[in-house]
Design goal:
Length: 154
Amino acid sequence: MPDADIDRRYDYTQDYLSGILRSVKTIAMVGASADKTKFSYGVLRVLHETGYDMIPVNPNPALTEIRGIPVVRSLREIDRPVDMVEVFRPKEELYAIAEEAIAIGAKVLWGQIGVYDDRAAQLAEEAGLKVVMDRCPKIELFRPFWKPRLDLAI
């Protein structure tokens, strides 16, 4: 599918995206990395510094924390409510992650840039989740419509 088709298919209003980013507090990041050169690390850092309660999810048993935040092996291991599941995994894994996001009661399924699956989106939407595909919350935070959460301590 050409990129232009993807852009049209996953075209969200500014109100929709900013509404999600204003309403969520706890974000589980599937595919979080401790490698500072990885994009997922930078996104986790910015979201955490902006005030979101981040939960890194990575199955590697040797990885116990990222930026001082404890790492869990799977979404099902999380011991508190999750507002948003942010996905940094190949799009082929998104459907199974959507199933897990539904199972844990998440409110939003967000696929990172390059992560999209129409079946996963439909499944999540039918379960009542808001869905964003092929977008980066870090980028969306800095778009002109976004009002920074300056009241939060870093």
